[in-house]
Amino acid sequence: MNDKERKYETLTVASLGPGNPKYILPAAMQAIEAAEVVACGQRHLESFDASGKDVHIIGTGGEKLSAVMAEIKAVYPYKKTVLVVSGDCGFYSLLRYAGKVIGKTHIKAIPGVSSLTYFFAKLGRPWQDAALISLHGRDQDLIGCVRRHGVVGVLTDNVHNATYIAKQLKANGLTEKVLYVGEDLSYPEERISRLSVEEGLTFEERGMSVVIVSDE
After folding, report:
1. Phi and psi torsions of 80, nearest 5°
2. Which of the listed CATH numbers 2.40.128.270, 3.40.1010.10, 2.30.30.30, 2.40.50.220 matches domain 3-113?
3. Which of 105, 114, 141, 147 is the most buried (most CB within 10 A)?
4. Is 209 exposed, middle or buried, given 0-12, 13-18 or 19+ CB atoms closer than 10 A?
5. pLDDT tens figures, 154-191
6. What is the C-alpha separation between 107 and 73, in angstroms, rounded?
């Protein structure tokens, strides 16, 4: 039987968690191990063995997301294909986009540990009353969330980082807040910093980060 005669019904979207293999759910790792085709970011390759697989890199070091998804759409019915995403696939990830390209009924999603839930646990704090938002390539009402909820977990990017958040807090008179910054979470180089708003104004991040804004 050749590839074109094989027929699979789903594309698997597998959540990688914060990055360290210890935090990848067995179901996600099993799906990745069984895959013939994997689409992922360059750094994701540090978390699993991709040898023998047809790997499509998204973004830096690879192709645009739209180009990769077009390739995945063409191949997933005939080869076991997994789209690997960071954190939890249901939280500001590629799950919605994949559903639009492939069709929601053809998606199998495997959850994972979000970097924010990892960070709250690392700090020994519950997150059920916190607002969780993303400033990663998007604009959300950070200040409104801080005023309504008190505690806010934020996914950041190179522009909307801890310094940006500190500036926003200061400009809106919320200088009593505390910022927790988690960089390279779960990796050996993980760094966690507790900052006042004033300290956050000049904080120099060294890697991927998430921020928790809190009262203490």
Report:
1. -65, 115
2. 3.40.1010.10
3. 114
4. buried
5. 999 989 999 999 999 999 999 999 999 999 999 899 99
6. 11
What phi and psi values does residue 211 have, to the nearest 5 degrees?
A: -130, 140
Write down the residue that tokens 């690392």 correspond to. Answer: 122
Q: What SS3 state is found at 6?
A: coil
Q: How far apart are CA 76 and CA 12, in angstroms?
A: 9
* DSSP 3-state of 156: coil
Q: What share of the chain is helix, strand, coil (3-state, %, to 5)?
A: 35, 25, 45
pLDDT 10s digits, 21-76: 999 999 999 999 999 999 999 999 999 999 999 999 999 889 999 999 999 999 99
CA 41 from centroid of its chain's CA atoms: 11
- Alpha-carbon distance of 40 to 43, in angstroms, equals 8
* Dist CA 113 CA 88 (whole Å): 5
Q: What are phi and psi of 57, to 5 degrees?
A: -90, 130
CATH fold, domain 116-214, is: 3.30.950
Q: What are phi and psi of 3, to 5 degrees?
A: -55, -40
Cα 178-181-182 angle, rounded to 5 deg: 145
Residue listed under structure tokens 């910093």: 193
Torsion sign across C-alpha atoms 150, 153, 157, 158: positive
**How does DSSP assign 53-68, residue by residue?**
SEEEEBSTTSB-HHHH
Residue 174 tokens read as 């919320």
